[in-house]
Amino acid sequence: MDKQAMLETARQMVAQIDDLPTIPVVATQVLQLLDDPDVNVDKVADLMLTDQVMTARVMKMVNSPIYRPSHEVTSLKRALVYLGIHHIKEIALTSSFISAFEDKGGVIDISTFWVHAFGVGMVSKIIAEKIHYRDLEKAYLSGVIHDIGEVVLSYYKPEQFAAILETIRQKPVRLVDMEEQEFRTTHNEVGFCIAEKWNFPEAYREVILYHHNPREAVNDPVLCSIVNLADLFCSVRDLYYGGDAWASFNLSEEEGWVILREKHPELAHLDVERFCYELDDAVPMVKEVVTSIFS
After folding, report:
1. What angle do CA 88, 144, 241 make, to 5 degrees?
2. ∠ CA 222-278-226 to the nearest 5 degrees?
3. Cα-based distances in Å from 40 to 33, 35, 247
């Protein structure tokens, strides 16, 4: 089906949603503060403290295995100093995504969804480090938000989406193919339209739209490839909500890997099997982090 037609269908679907989630105001204000090169940590801390949920999540995440503090961090200001500006952005945005989609019901168990989202974010960051990608924060956040269209379909098209999930649990068909058949669009286009409404930068919108087809990306095919591979990896490592246990993953044959090899010829010497073992080490950490955030 034509991509533009699928995008138009997604725009019509999103336009019909009356209670579409928005990014919390505090998160937006925090991000604006953090864009100031002379940002004052006290001012950021005071603002974040007005959002108890965000504050609690910051404290949980800073004391999680992701950031590995040598001693428990007990004050928000110390947490912000310890994390640094880039990581504060990561957590503020991550918290706002979670808050936007909480307590709405839906077909997908939301904590299971975030296991996948965090998994893809963390694995994206690992892959980005391996290839010396210029912006690790962007790789992480792109991984976290890549499937926001799935949550929208889960909440606002529950009966149809539940039927799709049941189908892919029983036979080897791709989720995006079933979505296209049922909705005449997919979570990629729906997520792209949400990202437009939230004024996400172009690079993030492109990842959401093309993370299954990184070859179609124009702005940053390397970033799309990173998230594509991280998504595939997590989908076959029990960090997924779709139930396609039949799926297989051979890194060296994937489109995303081919693109990375084209852009980074030195990857030809990478021990792929050992690299996959390194990624495997991240799986228990992801589950622990999500458990702590939702406990």
Report:
1. 140
2. 10
3. 8, 11, 48
For residue 57 the two structure tokens come to: 């999540």
Instruction: Report the C-alpha gap between 170 and 163 in whole angstroms.
Output: 11
Average pLDDT, the chain: 84
Structure tokens of 10? 């997604």
Mean pLDDT of 261-281: 81
Show me where the domains of the chain are located. 22-100, 104-294
The H helix count followed by the E strand count for the chain is 17, 0
CA distance 220 to 186: 21
104 DSSP 8-state letter: -
Contact 202, 219 (CB under 8 A): yes
- Our measurement of the distance from residue 123's CA atom to the centroid of its chain's CA atoms, rounded to an integer in Å, reads 10
- Rg of the chain taking only CA atoms, in angstroms: 19
Residues 197-229 as b or e (16 or more Cβ within 10 Å = b): ebebeebbbbbbbbbbebeebeebbbbbbbbbb
Residue 266 is classified by DSSP as G
The answer to whether 190 and 227 have CB atoms below 8 angstroms apart is no
Convert the pLDDT of each residue in 2-58 to its tens digit.
889 999 999 999 999 888 888 777 877 887 787 787 888 888 889 889 988 888 888
Q: Is domain 104-294 annotated with CATH 1.20.1440.230?
A: no
CA 170 vs. chain centroid, Å, equals 26
C-alpha pair distances (Å), 29 with each of 78, 206, 245, 276: 20, 24, 41, 39
Q: How far is it, in rounded angstroms, from Cα 69 to Cα 107?
A: 36
Range of lowest pLDDT (64-78, 129-143, 154-168, 209-223): 64-78
Cα dist from 118 to 53, 61, 185, 215, 263, whole Å? 18, 12, 25, 24, 26
